[in-house]
């Protein structure tokens, strides 16, 4: 007769084996995002996107049959907290990869941690110094600020604009993009004759805009920045009745910017953006169309709100990581890193990614669409 009563020792052993089996069947992915704080308009849709996509993948059977365990922290845009959470993800949570770095500042704080630990890291911040020079374990999904400058200057050149004023934020993104724009503007035959700055807490940019308006011959104004600053610039611009083209950065490519600035004030603003904001305007043969429409539909159904460019960066980061793990057939961090670097033709919401040892972004300027705000929404610019 078989004794159906298990001893405590035997039961403990079975439970231990069961728990070990469960642990082995999980792929731990870490994330530290600015879900709250001054950059929450970026980090919140990123966090929502990651949670939604993890649920989708797990419901479909996981990655190569293994479920994803997403471990997420909110750094509130603080680089010190981001550094602390990255260390926790690596040392305590033992993740195989990290998606995060909502801002340039938090990304730069995380990068030394992942390089030392040799853990692949996919950032969603814009500054070029994240991937130039290339760091072995750091990748990113948004276009660089230098690429945004180039796309804007291409558009200005096509419109015959040769003399501009700039008004830039002093934060990490605004300062970096300003520097990149100043570095390449001469290549397009464009002269910057006014160069104003504003701080992150400034609530009125009328004095700077008045200074710019007072310069002779200015044909357009460019505002490198993100957050509330560009919305204030846009409102003040309208209030002053400045009748010149206004260009913003890709850092404000969301409906939230239009709502904050006011649709009337934002009318006619141009900026380089992603296909995600104009998915229904894309040609049917555009390879990004189905990707952006599927993501948009899923996000809006899940959360009852429109997608943003920034959530799209998280979508692409997650898809890059899942694709790499599937192709690697491994959850070893080095294997995942190698597979991300070998990404070839992965279609995302931001563009089509093809990476290499020399390129940890995998996009070129053609992935940018020039957008214009019309009637309170985004349109492909003429």
Automatic annotation (TrEMBL):
Keywords: Amino-acid transport, Signal, Transport. SUPFAM superfamilies: Periplasmic binding protein-like I. The keyword Signal applies. InterPro entries: BCAA_transport (IPR051010), Leu-bd (IPR028081), Leu_Ile_Val-bd (IPR000709), Peripla_BP_I (IPR028082). Residues 26-374 form the Leucine-binding protein domain. Belongs to the leucine-binding protein family. PANTHER family: BLR7848 PROTEIN, LEUCINE-SPECIFIC-BINDING PROTEIN. This is ABC transporter substrate-binding protein.
């Amino acid at each position: 007769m078989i004794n159906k009563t298990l001893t405590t020792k035997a039961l403990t052993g079975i439970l231990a084996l069961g728990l070990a089996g469960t642990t082995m069947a999980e792929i731990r992915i870490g994330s530290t995002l600015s879900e709250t704080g001054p950059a929450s308009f970026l980090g919140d849709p990123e966090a929502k996107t990651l949670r939604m996509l993890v649920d989708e993948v797990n419901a479909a059977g996981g990655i190569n049959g293994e479920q994803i365990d997403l471990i997420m922290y909110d750094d509130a845009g603080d680089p010190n907290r981001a550094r602390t959470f990255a260390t926790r993800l690596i040392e305590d949570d033992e993740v195989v990869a990290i998606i995060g770095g909502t801002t340039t500042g938090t990304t730069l704080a995380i990068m030394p941690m992942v390089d030392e630990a040799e853990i692949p890291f996919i950032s969603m911040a814009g500054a070029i110094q994240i991937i130039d020079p290339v760091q072995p374990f750091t990748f990113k999904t948004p276009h660089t600020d230098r690429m945004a400058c180039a796309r804007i200057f291409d558009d200005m050149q096509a419109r015959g604009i040769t003399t501009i004023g700039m008004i830039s934020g002093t934060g990490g993104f605004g300062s970096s993009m300003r520097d990149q724009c100043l570095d390449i503007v001469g290549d397009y035959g464009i002269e910057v004759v006014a160069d104003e700055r504003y701080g992150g807490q400034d609530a009125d940019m009328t004095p700077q805009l008045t200074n710019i308006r007072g310069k002779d011959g200015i044909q357009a104004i460019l505002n490198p920045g993100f957050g509330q600053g560009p919305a204030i610039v846009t409102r003040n611009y309208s209030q002053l009745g400045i009748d010149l083209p206004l260009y913003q950065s890709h850092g404000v490519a969301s409906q939230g910017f239009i709502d904050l600035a006011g649709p009337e004030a934002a009318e006619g603003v141009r900026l380089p953006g992603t296909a995600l904001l104009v998915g229904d305007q894309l040609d049917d043969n555009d390879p990004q169309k189905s990707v952006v429409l599927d993501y948009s539909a899923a996000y809006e159904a899940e959360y009852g709100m429109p997608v943003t460019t920034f959530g799209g960066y998280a979508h692409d980061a997650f898809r890059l990581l899942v694709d790499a793990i599937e192709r690697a057939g491994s959850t070893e961090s080095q294997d995942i890193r190698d597979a991300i670097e070998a990404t070839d033709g992965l279609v995302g919401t931001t563009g089509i990614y093809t990476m290499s040892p020399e390129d940890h972004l995998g996009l070129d300027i053609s992935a940018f669409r020039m957008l214009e705000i019309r009637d309170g929404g985004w349109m492909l610019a003429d």
